[in-house]
Amino acid sequence: MEVVFxxxxxxxxxxxxxxGLVDNRNVLRTRKMxxxxxxxxxxxxxxxxxxxxxxxxxxxxxxxxxVEVQELAEDEYLIIIKFSPTVPHCSLATLIxxxxxxxLQRCLPFKHKLEIYISEGTHSTEEDINKQINDKERVxxxxxxxNLREIVEQCVTEPDD
Length: 161
Prior knowledge:
Elements: H1 2-19, H2 21-44, E1 67-73, E2 76-83, H3 93-107, E3 111-118, H4 126-133, H5 136-144, H6 146-156
Parallel strand pairs: 2-3
Antiparallel strand pairs: 1-2
């Protein structure tokens, strides 16, 4: 019986591949992930740098290519962001990661899991910072600090908000 089901499954798979239905589904899924990535990018591009009067987009800290979205389940996504600090010894990289976390948690209208990393080779302590900005307890503790919370608010709030 298992052999029969395997043959039927193989036949159906081949028929779908020949008809182009499988490829169309993959194209639609890929397009959907690209649209979600652009939606995420639109949220983070306007975050202001903690030190400079520029946005993360203007400083090339975030770009469209730094955002990846994967579907975990129906209407649930994994968002991976790899940002690049302006200098390898940037003392505010952790704060930038915190701003990304806060803005995305507030603004994304769909269910998601979030992973934020410093792009490989762009910071001298990237491993330590990556651990900090993806640790929910550390993020929550940081946002309890009124001074830090005020800085984050200034960075993530739109000028006309």
